[in-house]
Predict the structure.
Amino acid sequence: MKRISILLAGCAALSFSAGLASAETWDMPLAYPATNFHSENAAEFAQCVNEGTDGELEIVTHPNGSLFSGSDIKRAVQTGQAPIGERLISAHANENPLFGIDSIPFLATSFEASEKLWAAAEDKMKEVLESQNLVYIYAAAWPPQGLFGKQEFNSIEDLQGVKFRAYNAATARIAELAGMAPVQIEAAELSQALATGVVDSFISSGSTGVDSKVWESLTHFYDVQAWLPRNLVFVNKSAFEGLDEATQNVLLECGAEAGTRGTQTAEQLTAGYLEELEANGMTVAPPSDQLREDLAALGETMTEEWIASAGEDGAAIIEAYRAQ
Ligand code: PCA
């Protein structure tokens, strides 16, 4: 009896491994909620890959930091714990200043400018990622970044002492320069941090404002349009190299489409997010001249700091961007 069950178990194991050899499933951690446009775009990308490979490579997205928290996604993909993932790349500017190129205040403030900046930076970005065991698949922009709060901010003076949520080195540096106390918080924890008073201000897009229903805690949104950060999708290099060429090409082609589609969607949705903030009772306004001037001065300081930290490669990208 015992022998028979061992034999049966052996057969089951054999047929199971034969199935796996022909089709693979990749879990794809995402940091933002399922209904966020980046997450929806990633799901569409996954479907494109599933269809393009006739189900040979199935990508399953896991939104809202459910598989890995946002801050752990990049490392998870680098080390092969996850084969593919999406991450706000500027959150890793401490590893390489190049990752922060999309978050230099007031360097590229429109979708058009953001596309130009990215075009100037993309090759170098691919190179740096490759040196970290990652293959670049696509990047998509967030809507322009504005300032959220629960009081009027008419100048940088009004920011003094405010508890400020940061999501990368640039937002932490802004806090520091403006005399605020920065706390690093992932978007998935933002509502809670606002509700419990851990923070009461932050810089982000209307998209994240809506995702986090910030009107439950905050009252003001200043449409500063400071920069347009990007989410990047990358694959573990060994996982990528383990695929046949046709499958690699499907990933890259679906990725190219997803990058274009993601940024276009961000642009189409930008105004609607601000309307939604307003419809939920928030004051949505452009910054006062004084606040704009104060933030612009801070942006100049940070641009200089970035160029100094990013060396020749950084300077070359800025030059190429400005020459376009
Ligand atoms: N939302 C993300 C990053 C940029 C954005 O608009 C966030 O706040 O975490």
In short: Residues 24-323 form a domain with the D-Maltodextrin-Binding Protein; domain 2 fold (CATH 3.40.190.170). The radius of gyration is 22 Å. The chain has ten helices and eleven strands. The chain has one domain: 24-323.
